[in-house]
Amino acid sequence: MSTEGQHTGRNLGRDLSGAVVLFHQAAAARVGLSAGDLKTLELIAAEGPFSASELARRIGLTAAGATSVIARLAAGGFVVREIDPRDRRRAIVRAADGERPELAEAFARLGQALGGVIAEYDTAEQAAILSYLSRMIDVLREQTLQFGSDAR
Q1: Where do the HTH marR-type domain residues begin and end (predicted)?
Q2: What is the pLDDT of residues 95-104, one digit of tens each?
């Protein structure tokens, strides 16, 4: 079902953000996680391992908040806590091996659908869209790090 034309420029960012969050919430619920926990897991898998304090900074939470997220992810078997081999006094968290099939399927379908949308644009338009989205990701990550710095 197409919703083209229903979104105004004024609300487009909010509409996009809402749709993304709700998609992640629905996907996360399939494996018993919240959307925030799922995105944290994805960050750990892509860029980890992290110490709890570094993870807290990256996700914009206090150390206690990050510790709660880590505990939930560990209880579900999504992450593993280990002794940091470079500093045996501290622990690190890394993603557990293997991806949940329910998540892999959901994100594969999403990727295919989004790939179909981007294919409707010419090469120059695709480059502009990808540039815009990459810059938005950078801005959002910078703003999240600011929350992480403020939480200390």
Answers
A1: 9-138
A2: 999 888 988 9
Instruction: Kindly give, in sequence order, each residue whose CB lies less than 8 Å from that of residue 136, ignoring residues fewer than 6 positions away.
Output: none
The answer for residues whose C-beta is within 8 angstroms of residue 43's C-beta and 6 or more apart is: 55, 58, 59
Rounded-to-integer distance, Cα 118 and Cα 129, Å: 8
* Lookup: tokens for 20: 């993304």
Quote the tokens at residue 43.
Answer: 């960050």
* CA 145 – CA 152 distance, rounded (Å): 11
Cα 12–chain centre separation: 20
Beta carbons of 149 and 57 less than 8 angstroms apart: yes
Low-confidence residues in the chain, pLDDT < 70: 1-9, 148, 150-152
Query: For residues 52 and 38, what is the distance between their CA atoms, to the nearest angstrom?
Result: 16
Amino acid at site 34:
S
CATH 1.10.10.10 fits 13-150, yes or no: yes
- 79 to 49, 64, 72, 75: CA distances (angstroms): 10, 17, 9, 8
